[in-house]
Amino acid sequence: MSTMPAPLLSLVDVTRTFGGVQALSGVSLDVAAGRITGVIGPNGAGKTTLFNVITGAYTPTAGEIYLDGARLTGLKPYQIARAGIARTFQNIRLFSSMSVWEHLLVAQRHDGSVFGRLLPAGLARSKAGREAEKALVFFGLEKVRDRPARELPYGTQRKVEMARALTANPRLLLLDEPIAGMSHEEADELRHLLMRLRADGLTILLIEHDMTFVMNLCDRIHVLDFGRQIAHGTPEAVRTDPAVLDAYLGADT
Amino acid sequence: MSGTLLLQQAINGLTLGAVYTLIALSFSLVMGILGILNLAIAELFMIGGYVGFTLIIAGAPLPVALLAGMLAAAALSLVIEKIGYEPLRNAPLITPMLSTLGFSIILQNLATNLWGSDPLQLPGDMLATRIALGEVSIGAMQLLVIGAAIVMVAALAFVIRYTTLGRALRAVAENRDVARLLGVRADRILLIAFLLSGLLAGAAGVLISLHYAAITPYIGVETGLKAIAVMVVGGVTRTWGALLAGPLIGLAEVATVAYGGSQIRDFVVYGLMILILLVRPQGLLGGARSDQGPRV
Amino acid sequence: MISTYHAALLADSGILMLGALSVYIILATGQLSLGNAGFMGIGAYLASYLTVEAGLPLTLALVLSALAAGMVGIVIGFPALRLRGIYLAMATLGFGEMVRSFFLNFEPMGGAGGFSGMVHVSVGYIWLWAGGILVLVTLLERSRLWLEIRATHDDETAASLVGLNTTATKIGAFGFGAAVAAVAGGLFAHHHVYIEPANFGFDRSIELVLAVILGGSTVAPGALVGAVLLVLLPETLRFLADWRLAAFGTLLVLVLLVRRQGILDRGLFRALTFRRQAS
Description:
The complex is a heterotrimer.
Chain A: E1 7-18, E2 21-32, E3 36-40, H1 47-54, E4 62-67, E5 70-71, H2 77-83, E6 85-87, H3 100-106, H4 114-118, H5 127-138, H6 154-167, E7 172-176, H7 184-199, E8 203-207, H8 211-217, E9 220-225, E10 228-233, H9 235-239, H10 242-250
Parallel strand pairs in A: 3-8, 3-9, 6-7, 7-8
Antiparallel strand pairs in A: 1-2, 1-4, 4-5, 9-10
Helix pairs in contact in A: 3-6, 5-6
Chain B: H1 3-34, H2 41-57, H3 62-85, H4 94-115, E1 120-121, E2 130-133, E3 136-139, H5 140-162, H6 164-174, H7 176-181, H8 186-212, E4 214-215, H9 219-234, H10 239-260, H11 264-279
Antiparallel strand pairs in B: 1-4, 2-3
Chain C: H1 4-27, H2 36-53, H3 58-80, H4 85-105, E1 115-116, H5 123-140, H6 144-154, H7 156-161, H8 166-192, E2 194-195, H9 202-215, H10 221-236, H11 244-258, H12 266-273
Antiparallel strand pairs in C: 1-2
């Protein structure tokens, strides 16, 4: 196997407890730049907690998180987002009053002056307008551009959420069960989109229950069980790891 | 200020506090379970007072007047639930709150037209009975107000803690969907919450009009707002908290009037309420956190 | 020429609309304030002091009052971050009552006796402010900043996770809302040329919220619709004499029941302005 690229995201010994219960205990993992990394594990293994800790929704009880060498631990969620981490949610969280188009504008970084933010948003020829248009085309959302996002079918809502995350121009994209509720065709289409994003150099970390999807897509996989990392490696290595088989057989998957 | 006068003031503070407690509980029954401020409670309280008052003047015995005031307020409370709250149960919280405001405008107008905007007075001899306790004397009416308030709070606490109905109320307050899964009929429970809330407001209305020996159509608003402060200080979901907070605020009011001038008292009361919201949102006695309210 | 009677109604609607806008701006971030009459009171007293005692021109006095109240709003906004929903509403209610109680005891400005000596201001001047601020907020609604405000309103967690500083947004909204309320208060004082603490009590705060919810709480011009409605309705119901208020209350409940989003919503506003879908 070729040499691993430098890690973009590093977790060092991250622990998070809730009232004495360890949701994550001593998890260390590296997410390689430009690769797709999967996180799997039975229900309640701590996968979503891991995402919440990375994005700053929870601060770790112990341990450190670095993005490209810069310490993220203790930063506020919006600061972590601005540092280059975007995410989607297991139970889709769209803005209920907004159209698809508005979703693609709102997450874009705005580095301009205060007055710039007071100008009308998303005019066709502005930079923001062009970026939004690009995301619209990439996810094939042109037809629903002005529809309220929450009225769209489930699979389309997932795409809007992903498009919103991408318009923030992240270095690392976190996807929490991206194909949950999607049809087989939609999942396949998404797999190709993610592979295109990887080819463009985006780093992706995803949680997914669908093993075929994970095994076909991910370059590396980390396995959590009861808040601990029990295995990690290539899909082939993980598939045959006795500890993994144990955890999954025990949890009837 | 002499010690005797101070003690006399303390008794007044306690009486006022007892009434605050009842209205605060009336607010908190609806608030704790539905998460909305029922602004009409202030006027339910006023209407209950008028009904009781009218009967007393007509010569009815006190318990009858009290019961009539309670029933009138409870009946109106049910009407408000059916028309003003239920159709709006899924709307943002602000909408049912304003519809209860609509009812409060209607009720106040009704009272002004029925009873006039001038205060109604109780005949003086009714309140003359005073019981001497050393150098202070306590009016029989004050004793009645405090006693009735304690009995009602105890009854409510018993219902909430030990009866099936109480368990259902708590379940719905905790999580309406889960309660439904457990077989609790949430819509009926909400009606019952409004009913109990109305009974308490009506009782408070009769009692406070006895305490002041007078009533006006405008008595509801000021006392109602104070009762909201009492509810917050006691903890929105704590029955006993209100019993502590009512007299506390009543005493604090009397004390600020005695030492700081009468006008500063509202400043102190609402300041205390904000302080509690910020540093101890679960109320003085603790309990459920109250800073995670549903969205407006 | 319009009659004095109509001019007074027009002035009242303008002032009420500004007050309603102040609630609207804060509500746009998902925060309900039941204490905006407090900010209005601060603006009224400060502007009156500046014109009567310090001899400043009214416009300057209004600007200064708005800035001062805006700062108070920001200070209030910080602790308000700890509270949500109805708990925030109750805390702001407490704030409003504290302000009223403060002016009741503030003898230098008349205490309970009120304050007077202001020079009456024309209805045209009032609407210059009211119209100007309404246009400003309506334009602002198409901006990038307003998208951030709406995101904060819709889902604060998601908003912060796409990189929006929701704390700054919420505090800023309190500051801006307070400033607009202060302008409304200053104009109120110079329209009625007499103010007393009771002008800025809970009733007033509720009236402002009512105008927003009735008029429509998703677009700024809803405040205009609500304010005009609240001022004109009691007048048109005059034939009901003693039952005027009861009829008003009934209408209020009916409107909430049949059109809970308020009279003007985004769809209707777009249709009325012949604007294509947002772009």
